[in-house]
Amino acid sequence: PPRSTLFPYTTLFRSTIASGLTITTSALPNGVVSQPYPGATLVAQGGTTPYAWSATGLPAGMSLSLAGALGGTPTGAGTFNVTVTATDTSTPQQTASKSLSLTIASGLTITTAALPTGVVNQPYPGATLVAQGGTTPYAWRATGLPVGMSLSTAGALGGTPTAAGTFNVTVTATDTSTPQQTASKSLSLTIASGLTITTAALPNGVVSQPYPGATLVAQGGTTPYAWSATG
Description:
4-stranded mixed sheet, single chain, mainly beta
């Protein structure tokens, strides 16, 4: 058909309008001090891929790769305000930033240093195990306890031991962080035998003369003993 005398030529232009660049990652996994970070890959949408990532405010020992992979081994505990930035490859380039909280938990350790002594066939005086670091509450368990004793999940040691001796007890605490931390410690537990007096007889004496003397003897329980007499 004949061309228009007003518009003899028509040219078509293709134009691409990129959507706004936004960071969609909403949270970062927790980490543990001096342990490899579980890792996270940041995500953005819009703009033109690939994105180039950067971050400020990361704890020492951690880094964010250009591709958005977060990793490393943090050397300090605490809650860090991390600002992550993504830059796309459109012309002109778009940039998006977002603040994310990153928690690095301190290492879990059991601080209980010793266990009270108990007496066979008597209620144990009780002890509550203590830990620090990680994320509370802790879940406790133990191996090597004497028969008749137990450790609750909350860390309370009790019961009535049925055997005397010295027991090597291994206690373990597990926290509720992600990933979970576990700490173990060996503690010595002494269960004394029942206290009995083994002296069977006393030497005779003579009136108005110095008594020949005697030292009473007992066994079991926990020394030293305190003695008393009537009659």
